[in-house]
Every structure is written in C-alpha cells, then in structure tokens.
Amino acid sequence: MDKTKLLIVEDEPTLLETLKYSLERQGYDVVTASDGVRALSSAREEKPDLMILDVMLPGLDGFEVCRILRQEMSLPILMLTAKDEEVDKVVGLEVGADDYLTKPFSMRELLARVRAHLRRVRLLREELESSGQADDGSLNGGAVFSFDDLVIDESRREIRRDGGVLAVKPKEFELLLFLARNRGIALGRSLILERVWGWNFDGGSRTVDVHIRWLREKIEEDPARPSRILTVRGIGYRFDG
Ligand code: CA
User: What's the gap in Å between 45 CA and the centre of ligand 1?
Assistant: First the structure.
C-alpha cells in the first residue's frame, strides 16, 4: 500500500525541517515547498493526501494557494498562522481551509490533527464505498434529502434550491448534510465540530457559527429569521427541514 503523502508548505527553513523530520518519523511520505507558487505545482504533481500550509509565504500567500487549490482538489488543508487573529481564521475558512494551528504549536498537537483529518477522509471514503456499487460499476451510494425547494444530494455533493445548484464550500456541504441526517435533533457545537471538522479545536464554536451563517444566507428565505436551521439556545443548532 502506498504511504500517506503530506505536502508541507513553509518558508522558515528550520520549521520546515523540523516538521518534515517529525512527520517522516511517523511513517508519512513528506514533500515540501517553501513558497506559494511551488506549493501549487507540488500539490498538482504529487497529489498529497493532506497539506500543511503556512499563511505568510513569499509571493502567493497561503490564503491564495488554498483558494486556488480548493477549485481543483478536496484534500484536507491545515493552515499555520503566526498570530492568533480571528480575522485570519475567518478568511482561512472562507477560502476553504479545514483547520488552523497558531504558531508556536506543539508537534503532538499537529500530529493529532493530521491524524484526525486523515481519519475523517478515510471514513468518508469507506462510507461512500460501502454504500454500494451499481451493476455498471458506477458508485450509486449517497442519500438525497429533499425539503420543499431544497435538495441535498450526497453523491453529487450538491445543494440545489429551486433546481439551481448553490455555490457552497466543501465544509458548508458537509455541515448541511450532517444537519439533514439528524433532522429535528438539537446538535451541540462540539458534536458538530467533531463530526464535520474531525477535530474540536480552540475557537471551534465560532467556526460552526460562521458556517451556519453562510448556509442561512443561501438556504433561508430570511436569514435573519431562519426557519430551516434554528438556533437552540445554550446548545447549538437544529435543522427542521
Ligand atoms: Ca511564513
């Protein structure tokens, strides 16, 4: 079996070396890049299973790299930020990052998150595979949830409203799918984080709230007075269909 391949993008040589060394010791196949342009070409050539991406890079920064790659591939992207600023986190989530680590971080923390994201992706793939194959060999797994004008199509990974496909980020899709599967149940923020993001990280509830806001803007008649995704005070959210 091929080794799991990680791409590390970091312009500080010492940190890059430390990360490479530690991750290789865990048995991962590691490729590296030290600027944004090389990060893009490396990701396209090497097709890594996960990417660790520094935000502040010469030339193209980490946000741009993330934004561009998200259009092309769906690998987990863990971003490294130098400062713990909310604005950075929100921008990162907008461009499609899966997770954040603020420098300085412990190697143990990084490894735990890398494992959590790889596990989440593997479970997702297994779920898709075990949901069956049609006679023609095509995958026909995946549920389709319909709520009036709203359709969540798992195998196509599409959310449609009034027949039109909504432009949603990968995490918005996964979040709505998780809510729809648990329709009518009040779900806590930490449970949502664990199931959708694969990790319960600092400032995580804010991540859930931001994504709920984005979803409401797309699927609610009046996002200020939602009727589909309701806030359950003191707990989290409930999807009513
Ligand atoms: Ca940097």
Answer: 23
Residue 86: C-alpha distances to residues 53, 100, 102, 212, 214 (Å): 18, 11, 11, 17, 17
Other beta carbons less than 10 A from residue 85's beta carbon: 11
Q: Give 229's strand partners.
A: 239
What is the whole-number distance in angstroms between the Cα of residue 11 and the centre of ligand 1? 5
Rounded distance, CA 164 to CA 179, Å? 21
Among the ranges given (11-25, 160-174, 193-207, 209-223), the one the predictor scored with the smallest mean pLDDT: 193-207
- Ligand 1: centre distance to CA 132 (Å): 44
Half-sphere exposure of 119 (CA within 13 A, CB side): 12
Q: How far is the CA of 214 from the centre of ligand 1 (A)?
A: 29
What whole-number distance in Å separates Cα of residue 79 and Cα of residue 114? 11
Query: CA–CA separation, 130 vs 141, rounded Å?
Result: 8
Distance 20 CA to ligand 1 centre (A): 15
pTM for this entry: 0.65
Task: Tell me the C-alpha to C-alpha distance, in Å, between residue 167 and each of 5, 157, 158, 218.
Answer: 29, 11, 9, 9
Ligand 1 center to 58 CA (angstroms): 8
Could you tell me how many residues make up the chain? 241
pLDDT digits (tens, 9 = 90+) for 13-26: 999 999 999 999 99
CA of residue 223 relative to chain centroid, distance: 23
Q: Is the pLDDT of residue 138 over 80?
A: no
Residue 125 has pLDDT above 90, yes or no: no
First and final CA of the chain: distance in angstroms?
42
